[in-house]
Amino acid sequence: QVQVVESGGGLVQAGGSLRLSCAASGSISSINTMGWYRQAPGKQRELVATITRGVTTNYADSVKGRFTISRDNAKNTVYLQMNSLKPEDTAVYYCNAGVYTRMGAYWDTWGQGTQVTVSS
Hints:
Blueprint: E1 2-7, E2 10-13, E3 18-26, E4 28-39, E5 46-51, E6 57-59, E7 67-72, E8 77-82, E9 91-101, E10 106-110, E11 114-119
Parallel strand pairs: 2-11
Antiparallel strand pairs: 1-3, 3-8, 4-5, 4-9, 5-6, 7-8, 9-10, 9-11
């Protein structure tokens, strides 16, 4: 069994910063790509940023230059530093991890989400 748990969401004024964390736990052998996605009310879930085990990163155009994704492989944790936040960043942010278990299975694992609200 593998799970990921997000933390760090909240309410912030436009221009402010937040840092999200996501920790994976369970019978983990290794974790491939980790990433953050978000879903605003009435919209589809969209990619925010991903990072491979080799720390190659990919960002949505809307967050480039403002958000930074990083990971700590020893802690099975991924972070999202969000700066210069805008009201349009308001959404539920979900963590995703591609986990290889000790039993040799592959789990595409999603967290429950954390709310980020940016006020104008």
